Amino acid sequence: MSEIDEVIKMLDNLTQDGVSRIKVETSGEVAEGERKKAYHHGRCDVGSPFATGKLFDAEEPDCG
Predict the structure, then answer these.
(1) DSSP sequence for 34-47
(2) Distance linking the first and last C-alpha atoms of the chain
(3) Which of 9, 20, 21, 25 has its CA 20 to 30 A from that of 41?
(4) Side-chain-side CA neighbours of residue 10 (13 Å)
């Protein structure tokens, strides 16, 4: 399998698992054939009421 086919297979597997946002970076620190997954708090999430669980308009206090 070529490197391009391996990348396509990896992306297909991620989308089949329900991942909707994917950023691919190459690294010499990860062994060939392995992948490292990290959660990224996008700019809209950092410190937002939804991300912190402190929704100001929630009807129930423990909705987060």
Answers:
(1) ---------TTTTT
(2) 44
(3) 9
(4) 17
Query: Taking the model in full, what pTM does it have?
Result: 0.50
Phi-psi region of 25 (alpha: psi -120 to 50; beta: other; left: phi over 0): beta
The one-character DSSP state at 28 is T
Given phi > 0 = left and psi -120 to 50 = alpha, else beta, which region is 33? left
Strands (E), the chain: none
Instruction: Give residue limits of the domains in the chain.
Output: 3-52
Tell me phi and psi for residue 3, to 5 degrees.
-60, -40
Per-residue confidence (pLDDT) for residue 9, from 0 to 100: 92
Q: Is 10 left (phi over 0), alpha (psi -120 to 50) or beta?
A: alpha
